[in-house]
Specification:
disordered C terminus, alpha+beta, 23% helix, six-stranded mixed β-sheet, DNA Binding (I), subunit A, 209 residues
Amino acid sequence: MYAESPGLSASVLLLNRLYMAIRVINARRAITLVYRRLAEIVAVENGEFLSYDFHDWIEVSEAKSVFEPERHDWIRTVRFQIAVPKIIRLLDYDRLPKAVVKLNRRNLYARDRNHCQYCGRKYPTSELSLDHVVPRSQGGGNTWSNIVCACLRCNVHKGGRTPFQAGMKLIARPTRPRRSPILTVKLSDSRYASWKQFLDFAYWNVELK
């Protein structure tokens, strides 16, 4: 349907039929769902929700390419270009996923915003490691409250000791996040401001796929 384009990997918020967020998917899957008429595009404009099918969205994209091209990711085909929608809604799906934030490397880096929790400096992922606050050799477990990001220098200095034993101090107490840390990072981008209206942080989380 479309040629390879960087916009295909852009993030799209997926809603169920009741306008409740399910997860974040890539643009390739989102456009395919809309094209197959399993979902519709939802645009938030001036506080109102507007719905579009695939062909209507192509026409809308033409206008957006003229007046606000910088606000969108784009998928280009031989015949036309289409703006990546920010939100789509499934037309026949009511269920919600379990509200669980997975304990994995990606979420830990996102929770700590790539900052070493000992020296406080920000590092690229390749220069960070994960540290057990209470070492596993001393009974520390794999839990949200016992694993933090640490730069290689701080991790080596701490070694198999607790922060107290190593004369070090955490800059923040590690906790289990209420929602997906990666989603929090996305919401700091103004391009995804329309997502906020569909997210109830107190009760459930959006899991990134």
